[in-house]
Amino acid sequence: MQQLILGGVRSGKSRHAQQLAQESDKPVTLIATATAGDEEMLERIRRHQQERPAHWQVIEEPLALSAALQQSDDPGAIVLVDCLTLWLTNLLLEEDSHRLEQEQDNLLACLPLLQADLLLVSNEVGQGIIPADPLSRRFADETGRLHQRLARACDRVTMITAGLPQTLKG
Amino acid sequence: MQQLILGGVRSGKSRHAQQLAQESDKPVTLIATATAGDEEMLERIRRHQQERPAHWQVIEEPLALSAALQQSDDPGAIVLVDCLTLWLTNLLLEEDSHRLEQEQDNLLACLPLLQADLLLVSNEVGQGIIPADPLSRRFADETGRLHQRLARACDRVTMITAGLPQTLKG
Amino acid sequence: MQQLILGGVRSGKSRHAQQLAQESDKPVTLIATATAGDEEMLERIRRHQQERPAHWQVIEEPLALSAALQQSDDPGAIVLVDCLTLWLTNLLLEEDSHRLEQEQDNLLACLPLLQADLLLVSNEVGQGIIPADPLSRRFADETGRLHQRLARACDRVTMITAGLPQTLKG
Questions:
Q1: Does 3.40.50.300 match the CATH number of domain B2-169?
Q2: In this predicted complex, what is the ipTM?
Q3: Does B4 contact A139 at a Cβ distance shorter than 8 Å?
Q4: Is residue C4 within 8 angstroms of chain B, CB to CB?
Q5: What residues make up the catalytic site (chains A, B, C) (predicted)?
């Protein structure tokens, strides 16, 4: 089962995914895409660490997501990726359009090969005013396009609002 | 029955809540959290006044929401709070982190004690691009966290889009 | 059948509407509201052109939408308008409040008279942080109000997230 979990800022999407991972009773690998670039992000990472069980295996991978997924693949396990929007941001900040495209293609290409269950967490960022600055607009475009591709590939898609899930697919 | 009504800008969330209040056939108390800080806000307040029945009891309370709820409590009545995002904004502008936290805790603590029916209206603000300025980001974080807490506490949660309700809970 | 299709940036709302138009097996007229004001918009228009069938009749109309709808009306056809948010933006940039109001009233007034099936595509822009600049705030207000009016008038309203439709009405 491969599942995409979308939600806005502090919508409870990570918590929902963590709960699904725990209820699966399988060994959990968390692929964390955040990098501790500043104090605020460090604080968010710390809070996420406190909220999740200490025995989870954690892989920190800001860019090479499909490689990390393939290396940690295991038919009896569940892998939680939190979150795709940070990964896209990291790729955009690399300013390497070819890699940005390639990493997304790699992710889509590796999904059918994975044997572990998969929980992909991502931010819904497209339902507000379209931002004026070109980088934010590009980010919104890339995110929307990626969500469409992943939603087609995944077995289940869920939207979280105020901590409450709505099933969009599956 | 305690209900949380979420929706974007001009989504029809206030109108939906007002309709529910009227259909209840109970005496309605409106707790309005807006303060007439500038001409635009004054205009919004005027428009809201025109849209609602003249016989409703109106309490204007920008900050001490739980106190206002407890003072206006009445087992046969329905209380409409419009809206929580303005209340959070007012608290954030006070620049008193302790009070910001305390008022939210007070709100959550008083909910199980209230005897009146309750309609809480709030803005969904977390599904667009994450804003660059720290105050907006803090506001989005606080709002998202509050919505999660209230959604757990309320009997029903509804999301309004284009005037149309979707039931998220209840 | 008149249908309103809402969705965020790159949510797949145009693609969804195009698919409905094709599946109808009726002759399709597309009313495109985009104007090629800059390179980025030109690129978006080109991409949209590539994605749609070449035999569709295309009318480019940035402002006089109800006139275009009435001129292209045909009981056996389906008309796709893509998109209303660009049309509202074009009207706002005219800085003629009377015309802004009039064109929206004209659109609402002509809907019951149209004999063709209708697919109206529009951007959900109200579920992020309320923007600080007055023009964006006005745009969000106008869009929200228009969506409410159209949602009442249309037979079906659909919200697209990650390419996946949710029925809000009908």
A1: yes
A2: 0.94
A3: no
A4: yes
A5: 48
